[in-house]
Amino acid sequence: MDASLFLNAIAAGILLGGFYAAVALGLSIVFGQLDIVNIAHPAFIVAGSYLVFALNGGFGLDPVIAGILLMPIFFAVGVLVYRVYYAAFERTGRESLAGLAFFFGLMFVIEVLFIIFYGVDYRLVEADYIGKQIEIGLVGIPWRMLVPFCAALVMTGAIYLFLSRTFLGRAILAVSQDRLALQLMGADPVKIKQIAFGIGIATAALAGALLIMIGPVEPTIGRLYIGRIFAIIVLGGMGSIPGTLVAALIIGLSESIVTTYIGPSWAPTVAFGFLLITLAVRPQGLFGRL
Amino acid sequence: MKVSGFWIGIVLMLAAGFVLAGVADNQFLFFAGYVILQGLIMAVAWNVLGGFTGYVNFGSAGFFAIGAYTAIALHQFAELPLLVLIVIAGIVCGLIGLGTGYLTLRLRGVYFAIATLAMAIVFESLITNWDYVGGSAGAYVITPAEVPFFDSFIEMMFILMLVLSLICVAVSRYLSMSRMGRGLASIRDDETAAECMGVPTLRLKLISTTVMGVMMGVAGAPFPFFVTYINPLSAFDLLIAVNAIAMPMIGGTAVWFGPVIGALLLGTIQQIVTVTISSELNILIVGAVLIAFVALAPRGIVGLFQDFARKRREGGK
Fold this sequence. Notes:
Chain A is mostly helical. Chain A contains 11 helices and 2 strands; from the N terminus they run ααααββααααααα.
């Protein structure tokens, strides 16, 4: 076995896994903690990519900074989407089937809006470091992977600290554990959920910036991530932030190894293989709460 | 009375199709009609599981594509007649549907929905890597220029689809109106309670997923012959899956004629929009209409009419 090829596959897998953590993080909160099946999450990420593309092209902003600047706007959009979702579905207790269909439709609307405005061409961003790489021994690490990896780790760490250390973060965890008890403590679960949903969507802005750094983006690229994201969340154990990170690394590594040794066209199967096996064997995931 | 009314309707629809085939010579009519009827079968099939039992299948496109690729693979192997291909594709997809049914033992609600989506993508990878049926490059099918009894091949495909969709509607109606239909509805309302009351939930779910699989396979099998070229992207098109969900949701999922109404309405609008404006706008409309209906009219058009009728009745008293 070629050592260089193997080491490069491992390095690429770890970097990819970190990026996947950023992509899955938002839905890990929304689906894992709030039980809201936002399958439109990847579409929000792609929306983030396109807005970053616009900021990068128009003002020459660094993609990561553009992504961070977009986060408050995405937070507001998330709050708005949750208000609609709550009013139409959660309040009436119809969230299961109708809620799923709602997000499915939302995903399509977002995708098509970007097709109409930007066409189906692939778009990419520019920054000084994209295209360069550092060599460590046999392994080459491209900056366009390393920067997303670091940004993803910082964001994941920040969300973890926020959820476990701050009052509001603990309230979000509480809403997922016992809604009624929270209500008896005098807190409004709807308000807390709307903030949590907003945070989940806000992470999509940065994840979108990272997505378009890693490779070119087209409006429907988010579909490729639906399965990965759900696989990561289920494998990580529904809403556990460290679990999400570990699962993302596992899936990133496996995909990278499969891509290197079997072929890139098999890579999408990896995540789903993990998903089906996890659901069948250990539905609570690696770090699961049940 | 009601039963005979239904069968008269079926015969009338069939007769109308044949009259249209005899009279019209605008080939686009048959093309558009085929697409609408294909959507109708998918919608009826989705509703057999999603509407009757409440299990959401996001992987409709997977079943459809397996049907299409079964036909392609057999067509490459031996040039069997189209009807045989449809039957075999139905059986293959029925078996996959049966397998999906066993998934429901462990996976309920959202997990089932995600697992079906996962299955569709796994199938897509398998097909993309299967060179015998063309792999990612796709496969071509040469259709006969002339066919017996019909003016053109496309006309025959339209009549074929009409017959298939009428059969599917009849099966779906039988399922919902028989004793089985009440069992299925009890699963939708409360599966645990249904099981406690002695409803054979697993058997009913297996029947439901199998019927869904067969119908979707049957809808997919003629597709490669209709478009003459097929690749994994077009066969596993997510729009097929969205339509299969949107059409019943718009029509009304609780009754057998809900998806029929939704499919005819949405399918026709889609055809008109695709031709007159653009196919992107067509997708936008599907998404927007789906959101509007699930948010504002959860029981679909059928529900709207029922509410309207009830209000008038109460107003008259």
